[in-house]
Amino acid sequence: MEVKKFLSIHILCVLIFVGFLYYVTIFVFLDDLLSLQSSAGKFHSLFFTSVASLCVLSFFVCVLKDPGGVPSSYLPDVEDHEASDQESKRSGLLKKKCEKCSEYKPPRAHHCRICKRCILRMDHHCAWINNCVGHRNYKAFVTLVFYATVATIYSSVILVSDALHKDWRFADMMPLKLFYIATGVVIIGLSVTLGTLLGWHIYLTIRNTTTIEYYEGKRAAWLASKSGMNYRHPYDVGSYKNISLILGPNMLKWLCPTAMSHIKDGLSFPTSREFS
Catalytic residue positions? Predict the structure, then answer.
């Protein structure tokens, strides 16, 4: 277990905020609105605790799971039908080498300047998990964003419901009112941000693309249109198949961050040409 990964100010901030959000949602807003002793209060506290626990579990998997590096023994296949001489094969191999780490680069792998290595199916480097988001931890990242979005929206609803329920006519309520306003701005703002991020990664999952590939694809589509051709992302094999390749073939395990037995070596991927 790489405990040193937790020695990051970003991770410390995340853990402190999660603790704060859990405390104020359960023991301030929910307790004031419904009372934790009531059956409704117990139900809501249990639901929020479950979502928060799954969010923390997903976060830990994202931090600790290696996103996938290129094996030192990896050697790409060079297919050059037009020229079979030794020099052209050597040229083909050089094109598949990373200029920064001098390692052979599999399809969809990209070099991370922070991790200083090539990452399999790299999406981006995330400072909040002190790790790259890549082939082996992308599912955990998607579930993290999902549970974090649900938790913050749920907390926002409880906060707003409690605020509307309270009697604010007393003069000494001003400090509490400022606390509710400040907390509401932070939590609701985070809900919108995380919801937008979740929508983005749902789109990427359905298309079986990454953030890097999306922007590369926009340029490729522009270049193709100038030549009167159509561009299609080569790894888009249909919505359901795309989701299954990333989240797994069993729908019941799609939101389980540790269910990753379906994830392959990350050195090759099915393409739309194979499914056409």
Answer: 126
Neighbours of 86 (CB within 10 A): 8
Between CA 124 and CA 141 the distance in angstroms is 11
pLDDT of 163-198, one tens digit each?
999 888 876 888 999 999 999 999 999 999 999 999
Residue 161: Cβ-neighbour burial (10 angstroms; 0-12, 13-18, 19+):
middle
The SS3 of residue 118 is strand
Q: How far apart are CA 148 and CA 227, in angstroms?
A: 44
Residue with token string 């990373």 = 98
Q: Which helix (H) or strand (E) holds 54?
A: helix 39-64
Sequence-ordered list of residues with C-beta below 8 angstroms from that of 62, at least 6 positions apart, any chain: 126, 129, 131, 133, 137, 140, 141, 144
User: Are residues 260 and 134 in contact, defined by beta-carbon separation less than 8 angstroms?
Assistant: no
State both tokens at 171.
């003069």
Res 90 pLDDT > 60: no
Nearest to 75 by CA among 85, 62, 89: 89
* Alpha carbon distance 146, 103 (integer Å): 35
The 8-class DSSP code of residue 97 comes to B
| Interval 111-165: pLDDT, tens | 999 999 999 999 999 999 999 999 999 999 999 999 999 999 999 999 999 999 9
C-alpha torsion 65→71→72→74, nearest 10: -170
Rg (CA), the chain: 23
The token pair at 218 is: 């926009």
